[in-house]
Automatic annotation (TrEMBL):
Protein name, UniProt field: Amidophosphoribosyltransferase
GO BP annotation list: 'de novo' IMP biosynthetic process; purine nucleobase biosynthetic process
Family to which the UniProt record says this protein belongs: In the C-terminal section; belongs to the purine/pyrimidine phosphoribosyltransferase family.
Binding note for cofactor: Binds 1 Mg(2+) ion per subunit. Binds 1 [4Fe-4S] cluster per subunit.
Residues bound to Mg(2+): 319, 381-382
Originating species: Paenibacillus wynnii
Function: Catalyzes the formation of phosphoribosylamine from phosphoribosylpyrophosphate (PRPP) and glutamine.
Active site location: 39 (nucleophile)
């Protein structure tokens, strides 16, 4: 396969702004060239303050999605729900939370794909079901969703959204079995990476895909059960963390308590490596490994694999700070705050000019001139996507007077799109897919460039200790080895389908 390669200077300014905000959704029209957040889910069973707990849980998961938020509660008879566009604190206030009465709830924060930022796709999705009501919230992507959707439409199904999640609802509704067995049958038809929370008037179901690609953790608050995409959301409500949900597992919670079951046997374990590298909060734990500690080990291993003599180490905030500390500790080179993040760069109604787009990184980051001027700087970052933001940050440091800028990336080169929930560009837009490391170094204007090896990544996360293939990680975005089938006759799609 051949690709036409265009440098950043040759690319025309794309016209992709079709929503209310310039930098909502995805695509190269975004000011900031970074991988897009996934979604986050939060569930409560058996607590009278379920809606309030969900609010705080979703607030802790805000980094996983900033486009929309929603909470649906059940009181044993009826559903009550509220969804809206924007941040959790913008969608909910105390009156809305107070109106959501019930002891069972599911909540969702969403990052939309392809600029498809519409309230109809905000979750949880709520349906009228033959036995009552049904609400579903998910994090992930169903790879074979287009094929299933086409088959369902040919058989008379009418879809109300473009969300992958609605496919599951239709599959359940068409089954003649009871809700639990219908859900298990439906889940077996799905290919991809997903973590589902499904709620009826009297039941809560929790399920993850057979590879465990998307994270989900269970905790307890008193007698109540709580579930979240990350453990940090359980910590914030004072929950005791019990365990991660296992691949292919389905939990059923109702008046009889908790039933631990599964809809399929677990397959090759393949938790998304980018959770450790970038997405999850550093205070979260996954598979028994703390994210901050894992990232520090990535930085330390990076120093061993690609040491460079320098005057200071700085990390691109926020996800690379831990790795930068690890690199500094390993080398003895001082760690400094050479880059400062503006935490208030929300969505903007103003479309910047091309000139301002090139300077757009300054909306988000500032270099500390008194720290970097005249210094040889090691800049630690978690990944390079298109290369445009890396080039802008390197130039930011140079403009602040850095004598040298050496870039160290604490992941392998990102060469392939993700089909399991990370909203990634087309392969042809991923700079590592068509340029050598030397060419990338020149493209981003760095003095040197190095990436963490796959083995170094697995070792840093602690995966070699598990005995699982590739440490139980999905590394497909680096090595093109996908744990599931991704080609369904041209009907496949990447990104986050929720």
């Amino acid at each position: 396969m051949s690709y036409e390669i265009k440098t950043g200077k040759e690319q025309a300014d794309p016209i992709l702004w079709t929503g209310d905000y310039y930098n909502e959704g995805t695509g190269s029209g975004d000011i900031f060239d970074t991988l897009k957040e996934e979604c986050g889910v939060f569930g409560v069973f058996g607590h009278p303050e379920a809606s309030s707990m969900s609010y705080y849980g979703l607030h802790a998961l805000q980094h996983r999605g900033e486009e929309s938020a929603g909470i649906c509660v059940a009181d044993g008879r009826d559903f009550n729900y509220h969804r809206g566009m924007g941040l959790v604190k913008e969608v909910f206030d105390k009156d809305k939370i107070a109106s959501l009465i019930g002891d069972m709830s599911i909540g969702h924060v969403r990052y939309s794909t392809s600029g498809d930022s519409r309230l109809t796709n905000a979750q949880p999705l709520v349906f009228k079901y033959r036995d009552g009501d049904l609400a579903i919230a998910t994090n992930g992507n169903i790879v074979n969703e287009p094929l299933i959707r086409k088959q369902l439409e040919q058989n008379g199904s009418i879809f109300q959204t473009t969300s992958d999640t609605e496919v599951l609802a239709h599959l359940i509704a068409r089954s003649q079995k009871d809700f639990v067995e219908a859900t298990k049958d439906a889940l077996r038809q799905l290919v991809g990476g997903f973590a589902f929370l499904l709620m009826t008037n009297d039941k809560l179901l929790v399920a993850t895909d057979s590879h465990g690609l998307r994270p989900l953790v269970m905790g307890r608050v008193g007698e109540a059960y709580v579930f979240a995409s990350e453990s940090c959301a359980l910590e914030v409500i004072g929950a005791k963390i019990i365990r991660d949900i296992e691949p292919g597992e389905v939990l059923v919670l109702d008046k009889d308590g908790l039933l631990e079951d599964r809809f399929t046997e677990p397959k090759r374990k393949a938790l998304c490596a980018m959770e450790y590298i970038y997405f999850a909060r550093p205070d979260s734990d996954m598979n028994g490994s703390n994210l901050h500690s894992a990232r520090k080990r990535m930085g330390s291993r990076m120093a061993i694999e690609a040491f460079v003599d320098a005057d200071l180490v700085t990390g691109v905030p926020d996800s690379s700070i831990s790795a930068a500390i690890g690199y500094a500790e390993q080398t003895g080179i001082p760690y400094e705050l050479g880059l400062i993040k503006n935490k208030y760069t929300g969505r903007t109604f103003i479309q910047p000019s091309q000139e301002l787009r090139e300077q757009g990184v300054k909306m988000k980051l500032s270099a500390v001139r008194s720290v970097v001027e005249g210094q040889r700087v090691v800049m630690i970052d978690d990944s390079i996507v298109r290369g445009t933001t890396s080039r802008r940050i390197v130039n930011l440091l140079r403009e602040a007077g850095a004598a040298e800028v050496h870039v160290r990336i604490t992941s392998p080169p990102f060469k392939n799109p993700c089909f399991y929930g990370i909203d990634t560009p087309d392969r042809r837009e991923l700079i590592a897919s068509y340029q050598t490391i030397e060419e990338m170094c020149l493209e981003i204007n760095a003095d040197s460039l190095a990436f963490l090896s796959p083995d170094g990544l697995i070792t840093s996360i602690g995966g070699h200790n598990s005995g699982d293939y590739k440490g139980g990680l999905c590394l497909s975005c680096f090595d093109n080895d996908y744990p599931t089938q991704v080609d369904f006759g041209g009907e496949e799609k990447d990104g986050c389908g929720c």
